[in-house]
């Protein structure tokens, strides 16, 4: 049986379609993604809870991926130290071909059966951590063999796949199967599968950051003050939270302590 991700597109003769038709059809397909994710939220919630539990106990998350999904996980993870002040090394990615070759799209590396596990070993993987495989097909050897090794050593596993009942899901304690159907271009899983993966990475990382205390109210109180825009946002955030009327005073306090959270904690200590 042909995997759903490889089944023929619902559309044909695309070269004969107008720009208006093509964009309308692509948008119709994209509209299916959020609804599909809604149907698997219980599985997503279980995976997020497992990640939070591991991180709260001092463990780490590793995304293990290849292709478009693996590259999208890199883009998500590199944002977290700046956006949430998360120490590097808590959220990690093991990418087929290596993160340093991200732009080279070394698709052939997804067939390597040992590189993923070797990279996890180099990172000192232990049962305190959790490894989440990323594979649209659910069969990628790089991901599958890495998860098999993890399972054999009682390392908690999860996955995000786009076909039902896959070998990778079978090796996962917390599988998330987001079956978005045939792609607009047959087999082009950078499209709906990639959109679903991006949405899930956003959902996972944001929810985890909130649950481990990197967000207060609806604010990024640990954001790194790396540019003028973020500094201004931080100053205004501190002015509101600490009821400081002077912009310059709030800016001085913020720059002294490096983050809104640290500034608030220091001010509370002085007040008490």
Automatic annotation (TrEMBL):
Keywords: Lyase
Entry EC no(s): 4.2.1.126
Name under which the protein is recorded: N-acetylmuramic acid 6-phosphate etherase
Gene source species: Pedobacter africanus
């Amino acid at each position: 049986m042909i995997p759903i991700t490889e089944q023929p597109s619902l559309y044909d003769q695309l070269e004969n379609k107008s720009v208006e038709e093509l964009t309308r059809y692509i948008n119709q397909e994209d509209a299916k993604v959020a609804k599909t994710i809604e149907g698997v939220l219980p599985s997503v919630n279980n995976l997020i809870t497992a990640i939070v539990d591991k991180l709260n106990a001092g463990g780490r998350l590793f995304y293990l991926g290849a292709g478009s999904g693996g590259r999208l996980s890199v883009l998500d993870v590199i944002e977290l130290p700046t956006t949430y002040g998360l120490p590097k090394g808590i959220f990690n990615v093991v990418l087929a071909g290596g993160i340093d070759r991200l732009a080279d799209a070394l698709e052939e590396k997804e067939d390597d059966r040992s590189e993923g596990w070797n990279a996890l070993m180099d990172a000192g993987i232990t049962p305190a951590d959790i490894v989440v495989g990323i594979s649209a097909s659910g069969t990628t050897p790089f991901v599958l063999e890495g998860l098999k090794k993890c399972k054999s050593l009682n390392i908690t596993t999860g996955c995000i796949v786009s076909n039902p009942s896959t070998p990778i899901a079978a090796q996962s304690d917390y599988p998330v199967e987001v079956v978005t159907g045939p792609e607009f271009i047959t087999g082009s899983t950078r499209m709906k599968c990639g959109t679903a993966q991006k949405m899930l990475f956003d959902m996972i990382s944001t929810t985890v950051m909130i649950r481990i205390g990197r967000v207060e109210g609806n604010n990024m109180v640990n954001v790194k003050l790396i540019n003028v825009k973020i500094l201004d946002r931080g100053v205004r955030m501190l002015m509101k939270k600490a009821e400081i009327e002077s912009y310059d005073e709030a800016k001085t306090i913020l720059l002294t302590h490096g983050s809104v959270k640290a500034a608030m904690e220091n001010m509370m200590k002085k007040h008490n």
